[in-house]
Write a structure and sequence with these properties.
This protein is mainly β. It has helices at about 25-30, 70-75, 95-100, 125-130, 165-170, 220-225, and strands spanning about 15, 20-25, 45, 60, 70, 80-90, 115-125, 140-150, 155-160, 175-180, 180-185, 195, 210-215, 255-260, 270-280, 285-290, 300, 305, 320-325, 330-340, 365-370. The site of ligand MTE has 19 residues, from strand 3 and strand 8.
Length: about 375
């Protein structure tokens, strides 16, 4: 059984698959803490979790500079420790809402395939400088990352981002060995994982083994045949993955974490308190969160909890809260949230127009139905 050495996990996590292990925390817990505790951080594994022995481990930078690979010890001790607090989101977060329009292929994620943590490690740029590589002048088009987790045919999990994007983010990309001040947990990539803030989870390769530059994208299944967007009329008989751009920076999203779908509020309640998250890719900060207690007819502004970051380098989510009046004399109502990022990007109002066969990028207004007994 390739899954016999899996790490132990919190019983609070809600699995969407066991082998490989995939799970999200209870959504109400997400909005409670700005930094998601490590054992509550969502888990997205495509393959068995590799068992890494540090004695045999090196990080290989295939840069033809003649300098040897680095050991874990060298990486953790010979470079300054850099940190970034960032939200990681799976492209399939909130997929379960797309499924209601038409079936899609993928794990049936609710709204919690997203979490936020402080990652610490070595700056990618400083690592490259150690190899005398200047990321601004290196001749290539992509930077490729490979993990130690392998498919039955021996090929590893791999991902890439355009070098242009890596250059923009060069001081913010880190090779992390710590998560929230603890040693990186096995489920999240022990011993090393690349953190590319503002970019989809799929490119932030865990159990990092190799980094190299290439004239083309990673040839992995997940780069070439997955994690891409399509219009709603494309289905499996007419899909052409080569024609679609790989997802990297993510669009603006938000969700109500509390109350959850189907909650029965206090009899005769006149107000409701909503809590949730809002986030946008590319470091675009959240400038406004609108909430409604009548299905989107009337809007109120939620109170944003500052994430301590600046508007164009805002990698962490913004948690928000709102006390808003409930429509009176109605036994049920729909709570809604939508967020606006610093580029004034907004979320689409409904799922139908953004449906796609893989159920990625599900960022429509988030709706939660509650009842109010009289
Ligand atoms: N890296 C490796 N090596 N193998 C994987 O299966 N999954 C990716 C990414 N990095 C994956 C990986 C995907 S799709 C996501 S969403 C994130 O890891 C999830 O990170 P997490 O499990 O730490 O939340
Ligand atoms: Mo993902």
């Amino acid at each position: 059984d390739p899954f016999k050495d899996e790490p132990s996990r919190s019983p609070l996590l809600i699995p969407s698959s066991q082998k490989p292990f995939n799970a999200e925390p209870p959504v109400q817990l997400l909005a409670e803490k700005f930094l998601t505790p490590n054992d509550m951080f969502f888990v997205r594994n495509h393959l068995p979790v590799p068992c890494v022995c540090l004695d045999d481990y090196t990080l290989d930078l295939d840069l033809s500079t003649g300098k040897p690979s680095l050991t874990y010890q060298q990486l953790t001790q010979n470079f300054p420790k850099r940190s970034v607090t960032t939200t990681i989101q799976c492209a399939g977060n909130r997929r379960s809402e797309m499924v209601k329009i038409k079936p899609v292929k993928g794990l049936n994620w609710g709204s919690a395939a997203i979490s936020n943590a402080k990652f610490s490690g070595v700056s990618l740029n400083e690592l490259l400088q150690h190899y005398n590589v200047n990321i601004d002048t290196v001749r290539a088009k992509y930077i490729v990352f490979e993990g130690l987790d392998v498919q039955p045919d021996g090929s590893p999990y791999g991902a890439s981002i355009p070098l242009e994007l890596a250059r923009m983010l060069k001081n913010d990309i880190i090779v992390a060995y710590e998560m929230n001040g603890e040693i990186l947990p096995r489920d999240h990539g022990y011993p090393l994982r690349v953190i590319i803030p503002g970019v989809v989870g799929a490119r932030q390769v865990k159990w990092l083994k190799k980094i190299y530059f290439s004239p083309e994208e990673s040839t992995s299944h997940w780069q070439r045949r997955d994690y891409k967007g399509f219009n709603s009329s494309i289905d499996w008989h007419n899909v052409d993955f080569d024609k679609s751009v790989s997802i990297s920076q993510l669009p603006v999203i938000s969700a109500i974490c509390d109350p959850v779908e189907g909650t029965e509020l206090e009899p005769g309640a006149e107000e409701v308190t909503l809590k949730g998250y809002a986030w946008s890719g590319g470091g675009r900060g959240i400038i406004r969160v609108d909430v409604s207690a009548d299905g989107g007819n009337t809007w109120h502004e939620a109170t944003l909890k500052p994430n301590g970051q600046t508007p164009y380098r805002s990698y962490a989510w913004t948690l928000w809260e709102a006390d808003i009046p409930l429509p009176q004399g109605q036994s049920k109502t729909e709570l809604v949230v939508k967020a606006v990022d610093v580029s004034y990007n907004v979320q689409p109002d409904s799922v139908a127009g953004i449906w796609n066969l893989r159920g990625c990028l599900s960022n429509a207004w988030h709706r939660v139905n509650v009842t109010v007994p009289s």
